[in-house]
Design goal:
Structural class: alpha+beta
Largest sheet: 8 strands, mixed
Shape: globular
Helix content: 40-55%
Oligomer: single chain
CATH superfamily of the domain at 8-157: Acyl-CoA dehydrogenase/oxidase, N-terminal domain
CATH class of the domain at 8-157: Mainly Alpha
Length: 592
């Protein structure tokens, strides 16, 4: 029976026919792997996700975690699923062998993890955060810190979080007030609170390792004075309860199965070693904490985009299944009211909605796995130039890979509800939950506004536009490959739209009005993203050349849909951007 979580056939196409992940095994880092190991872990992931994660997704939503003032209670199915995940050794799929991981390519590892996000995004949030946490410790922590915390995380005994936001600061991290006071023994004592901390408290693991942004008194103002600390729920190795206290749970419209918390550090409920404050351990150098945290944040941003894609994908497959089995109405040309009703997939408008979903979710999945392959090349770079070029590409594509799926795979969920008709917004069907779960992703790990400013205000202009130049070269390669094929018209359309974007970008900055240029950065992000996804679709279409069958025909049709219905949407937004319109800038508070 075909899965309604993800399409294994699509994953195989993307991994083996388009991205050629087997070529990665020619690199030293991945030399121990093969198609057999890749397929084995993909099969295992689908099985565990289907058996242990998908089966309690709705229960996780209707019976969200509760807090009685002392203990968080979570349905037992969550613990059983995470135990199965840990026993299958899936948390360490992409982690270095020297730490106990399997050292698989991120391309394969992320394809595997998408199964869990599609099956149950709430439960999958715990290993998602833990993996990003331990990867930061491996990259920036000391050998002692990595030895102390990484292996227990890989074994599923410790879970991890990231603690950035505060009630008064939100995304403005320069304004955080949590302080870390140095102690004579080299540790720190932390005082303050953190808001919106996913996985911040529970009884699912032996320990929770918080990575906390805080300021050391006397340090520089703003973000330059932020340091990063390890603050465990239980002090290692003594096991003493640290002064990290759950103040309460936030109740969100989606992701209900993952605890979302307000944490107090150093409120005095516990006094480890008889002193006030939560015990913390500095990571790396003081006042460099935000740069370290970006390692976790960028990984999380790609992961949020992948999760948004997975939720859009499963909603698409479920609405496709529904459209094939739900009989309603007759073709406009059918005059006999006694004739049997037809499946709604026969109706052109339903086909339009399904094609839109297919173009969004399969385009987004292609981008997520493309970025994952860039990570693999970066981690196994065979020259400085290769490392540089992949880093430049990742820099400019990361805000797109986070935000575009969060917007358009959410729209796929919206269309999945529409395909279901009146049933779509009832809780008896899954698609309304998928929409609620996915609605968080345009905010998670940086809103669209933040990603737009990052793309236009930093990534596009960094190093004299080096990232934009690198991306332009890659798109040009695809255009050249498509010009002499059946997709020559799509190649010409992509080339013209991209060149227009480059011209508009230059004019926006050339005008010397930075405020006006950045005012519509979210519009720029959306426009940029649509062009990138068109590139992903042309890449996929070219890969289908000379191959026959329903699957390949479907890819070609979805590519043509995106170029006919979606890419043209960039023309008016490019005109708006070129005009440096100041409507939003000149609007006054009093006029609302």
């Amino acid at each position: 029976m075909r899965s309604t979580l993800l399409s294994r056939r699509d994953l195989d196409f993307l991994l083996y026919e388009w991205l050629d992940v087997l070529a990665l095994t020619e690199r030293k880092r991945f030399a121990e792997h093969s198609r057999e190991t890749f397929d084995g872990v993909l099969d295992l992931s689908e099985q565990v996700a289907t058996r242990y994660f998908a089966t309690h997704n709705k229960l996780n939503d209707t019976h969200e975690p509760t807090f009685d003032g002392e203990t968080v209670t979570i349905i037992p199915e969550v613990s059983a699923a995470l135990d199965a995940f840990a026993k299958a050794e899936l948390l360490g799929m992409t982690v270095d062998e020297r730490f106990g991981g399997a050292q698989l390519p991120a391309t394969v590892g992320n394809a595997c993890f998408a199964w869990f996000q599609a099956a149950n995004v709430g439960t999958s949030a715990y290993p998602f955060l833990t993996l990003a946490n331990l990867n930061l410790l491996i990259a920036h922590g000391s050998e002692e810190q990595a030895a102390t915390y990484v292996r227990p995380m890989l074994e599923g005994r410790f879970f991890g979080t990231m603690c950035l936001s505060e009630t008064q600061a939100g995304s403005s991290l320069a304004d955080i007030t949590t302080r870390a006071e140095p102690q004579a023994d080299g540790t720190y004592r932390l005082f303050g609170n953190k808001m919106w901390i996913s996985g911040g408290d529970h009884e699912l693991s032996e320990n929770i390792i918080h990575l906390v942004l805080a300021k050391i008194p006397g340090g520089p103002a703003g973000t330059k004075g932020i340091s990063l600390f390890i603050v465990p729920k239980y002090v290692v190795p003594t096991g003493e309860r640290n002064d990290v206290v759950l103040a309460g749970l936030n109740h969100k419209m989606g992701y209900r199965g993952a605890t979302n918390t307000v944490l107090n550090f150093g409120e005095g409920k516990y006094t480890p070693a008889g002193a006030p404050g939560a015990v913390g351990y500095l990571i790396g150098e003081a006042n460099r904490g935000l740069s370290y945290m970006f390692h976790m944040m960028n990984e999380a941003r790609l992961g949020v985009g992948l999760g948004a894609t997975a939720l859009g994908y499963t909603g698409y497959l479920k609405s496709l299944d529904y459209a094939r089995t739900r009989a309603q109405g007759r073709p406009p040309t059918a005059k006999d009211p006694a004739a049997p009703q037809v499946p709604i997939i026969s109706h052109p408008d339903v086909k339009r909605m399904l094609l839109a979903q297919k173009s969004y979710v399969e385009g987004a999945l292609a981008l997520a796995l493309y970025c994952s392959r860039l990570l693999d090349i970066q981690h196994s770079a065979q020259s400085e130039e290769e490392a540089r070029s992949t880093t430049l590409l990742l820099d400019i594509l990361t805000p797109v890979a986070k935000s575009w799926p969060s917007q358009w795979c959410l729209e796929a969920n919206n269309l999945a509800i529409q395909v279901h008709g009146g049933y779509g917004y009832t809780r008896e069907y899954d698609v309304e939950q998928h929409y609620r779960d996915n609605r968080l992703n345009p905010i998670h790990e940086g809103t669209h506004g933040i990603q737009g400013l990052d793309l236009l205000g930093r990534k596009v202009v960094q190093q004299g536009g080096a990232s934009l130049v690198e991306l332009a070269a890659k798109i040009a390669e695809t255009v050249r490959a498509g010009r002499d094929s059946e997709f020559a018209d799509l190649a010409a359309q992509l080339d013209a739209t991209w060149q227009r974007l480059v011209s508009v970008t230059a004019d926006m900055f050339g005008a010397g009005d930075l405020e006006a240029a950045l005012a519509n950065s979210s519009v720029y992000l959306e426009t940029f993203g649509h062009i990138v996804i068109a590139w992903m679709w042309l890449e996929q279409a070219i890969t289908t050349i000379g191959r026959s069958g329903d699957f390949y025909d479907g890819k070609r049709q979805a590519a043509r849909y995106f170029f006919a219905y979606e890419l043209p949407k960039t023309a008016p937004t490019l005109e708006l951007l070129a005009s440096l319109d100041r409507t939003t800038l000149t609007m006054r508070d009093e006029w609302f």
